[in-house]
């Protein structure tokens, strides 16, 4: 049932003649950097879909793998095709796939769950213990073709722009954080104005926050935060930012904290700023253990804290699609660069320099 | 409107002749130990109720104050009457008090909230920023009389035993923890089998947990934990207790963690044991900052974590009263000693030695 | 402690000289119509506040009392001053009142709860069994002065316009409905575009609905609905409106129904339109029993249905104030008329004719 | 991939030799009664499992089909094998089935959802619009073999008795009702003490209700209700039962209503009995439209009402299995008869007479 390099799957239409090989951005050895290689097309099983990647977003995780930091060395096993944020068109269908057609536009959930455990069977597949992530644990999306299980493939409404569809993965992180914490009618603080933090500002506004505030260590992010809907953006170096925020939130602090930076200082300060009884969603990953004043920051304040990983399958996808389709979300200020796949070194350079927010690779 | 030593409040009945002075257990100087003194009766304002204390429970917090540890030195300002868990009878009523009668049995919420802030006005008075705690911030309950604001006084149903009513404060901590985490139909781990942890075992069972497990560092607590309803109790020194617990919970770990110890190791191990997507209520107060692997213990697992302080006013009280009235809760194994007020040194010795669970002082 | 006609309460400032009598709009006899009379100022108790009414909104309930329909005949006992939506300034304070000052701007919750029952003590005072409503069960707000218990008086932020503050009562109904049903990231249908229905459109948008749809029997309301933020407004007479709505909501129907009309047909059609698993908030009061297909409309669909009465004390008030202060809500299109108290007959005529949405009486 | 009568599926073990035909209880014509016929074994597709039925429960729905009432005439299309509550062992596996082995014990969810709609993909498959029910819309379980999609098949823990596993379908209805309404720490009224109502009494107790009350029209059910854990059971004909219940629930009425009868009178009285702010789960299906005082019974009381259909896939199944495995549930008093398949006419006679609670057909 599987296709091999050069084979034609039986379901391919006239226009879907598949090439024998394809370009793919790969981590080929345990060291910094990526290589653009020609490799065979991925095989698909009976329930898989082969997707022709059109646009793909670069994530901070990709930069970690590019730079081959400690986390990457521990988690990633070369050789592997990297990349996990993408959209494209259906290029071939496994024999048992139903409900998809060749050439239709799709994105995909990049976390592949086991589908059989109690978590998967009770709506919590996003925290399945057997999650395998494309571009990290198996071949990813920075290539002309990617194979995905049919249940992970997401049909795109016609009105969703390609560039937005390409970043449904991080947008889904932001939507999952915002919807889990609950922002409707509330004041919200977002710590960390990287790509997901910036998206969260915009999503929080769309989801009904009455005020949104952001804080970041980089001055150049503050203006961007405001353009995306922040009522005010603070520079983390300002020792009185918590005090200023408090005066903007009835003297008590924001109702909700969305922690998108993974910085120990941001977690600590964010919880200090949060009002008693507030809700905090933690998405940013601290690279190591951090010291927390659990009594003062969590217990006495009666805080509710949510660990946020991935996106709900597929509640978050429906929410996200609905928001984008109805134009409640504006990602244009966040997508700062669109580059061809070949310019990957330039792209990672921009990301590292912090001058880019979200970079999209164009593989069309 | 206030009564002074020796005065008779106008509402006093025939049998309520008040003495001029009363015995009270006091922290008189910034050093270890308490003194039993004769002092004037507390004054009551127009909306206060004077209560003749009948029985009072000793809390771990009282031991901290007795021993004058760092926390106590920082928080408590002698001279002050200590104690905050109690029940008694109404002895006198302020001029504006309505709905209470002399001699009726009452307990009281010992956290006095401002009543005016947004938290107080939206059902979250238990985390009001202006909370003042009897026996810590103002005169407490280890005395023959205590003055309480009428809104803090709780009428006791006739079928509630005195000894149970005397410990509604810590029982309320346990009930608040259990009801916030939500245990109905779930498997529950309780870390720390002190008085509140033991109560939580029993409350979790009453609230519909399908299995309850406990862990403690002290072997002598394990049998008590089982008598109160734990399906199994583990000794923390057993390096495989998490593994054993996992095998008892479908291989995935418990759905709920109730952290009652304040120990950094218990928090860390409890979160490790908890299943992905589990809920954790933290009540035990770590004495200092702790190191947490936020990425592994909270974020990747998609854990929801609740900081628990005090008891909800007065939702917890209604829940607690309903459970006790309907005999869903059995505190007998926990109340290990009943002693006269004069034996306070013996009581604190027993507590410190760890041979007592809950000690009640009898002031009748 | 109470003030009587012509008396000066001790707390009155220099500028607060109170008149002996005041004009008040009254139901004086069990028949249609109101009378504008001079009556003594209301007395205040020790914990009451006397408010100089500045602006007051006319509600559909007032029209029922004006017309003396069956409901009014059964519920209202003349003579009584009518009106319950208002804002004004503090004119006098009872002896025990704290935290208010003469001349400060206030509105008030018109439902006076007992404050002592389990509902009142657990954050559900809005459904207390002993609720007494101003302008219905006791003297109301269509008068120069009204007495209110201090706990019902709401301090107005400086940036809240008088006209908005005058209609916090119905706006609170809308906010309570929207926040109870939960609209963040959802599609919403509102049945009934009277004043509260129109407010709900605007509030739903502010609270994060991705799409809002309205339906009403009156063509003249549809344009107003769109100006307030409805994506589309349907005329109830159109036999295919449910089908059209379904095609706008992914073929399944809206996620949320806010029923603001009290019409049996609207309830039935609204529940038919609602998607499986949807949430419905019912605020509109059917004047009599209605026939419901409980199996098809509620059970098979797995619908969750909320009965909505009044506004939460005071969670709704905080939410509402936050939304208005932060300019998330625009009531201008709803407030169609501002008239002097003397023009009350004209006002009720406009309301009855359906040519007005919300009419405000100006008593300054 | 499908097996036909007399064929051997490739996965069949030595002991799984399948017969060519099997006995099945069938509705063969549009009239009252069933026929026991020999028919070919059901075919299975690539993702289906063939189950050898061991025990099957008779449901009220089966009685409707047996008697061929109006509902049955409208819904059921003969010829069809009836029955939907069952357990058995795996007899054959479709080619694509993974994770099951021949002869393992299983039960199954009898509602077959489409798996592709938004409801199915967001954890609400139990209210999928395309649900097809075994024994109603396709061949059912009163036969020696039944074919089920693999995702509907539920592996049974070894400690779950056959008789309990045979009624996981109605037990799931009860668990879904109880868990949706939320009974932990609450007082509960159950209207209707048929098989599911009786199960709900026991489940509510296990799930942490502090008190459970039941009401039924049949005096013979009251004793059974008490044996299953009801604190008190009322006869519906007693005009003061609501008053008596109120006096048992602090004068305010129960916190939760579980409506299991489908009777208009029970729905009306149950909502009248419910306290303000209470939660009601409606499972019983009224055979036609009913008249409801929506204003008094739902709106003024601030009631939350849940329509309950089927069981959550598969959250309810996990909850149910956990409760049974841990012996929190005792169904023995409910399973009043175990009869061979051939005695089906006797079984339906007993059910109709109301002398049986739950009858199990033994097909071993």
Concise overview:
The structure is a homotetramer of 364-residue chains. Chain A has 364 residues and is α/β, with parallel strands linked by helices.
Describe this structure in words.
- The structure is a homotetramer of 364-residue chains.
- The first copy, chain A, is an alpha/beta fold and 364 residues long.
- Chain A folds into 2 domains: 187 residues, Quinone Oxidoreductase, Chain A, domain 1 (Alpha-Beta Complex); 135 residues, NAD(P)-binding Rossmann-like Domain (Rossmann fold).
- Chain A is 27% helix and 25% strand.
- In chain A, the strands form 4 sheets. In chain A, strands 3, 5, 6, 9, 10, 18 and 19 form a 7-stranded mixed sheet that branches.
- In chain A, strand 18, helix 11 and strand 19 form a beta-alpha-beta unit.
- In chain A, helix 4 packs across helix 10.
- The relative contact order of chain A is 0.14.
- Chains in contact: A-B, A-C, A-D, B-C, B-D, C-D.
- Chains A and B meet through strand 16, helix 9 and strand 17 of A and strand 16, helix 9 and strand 17 of B.
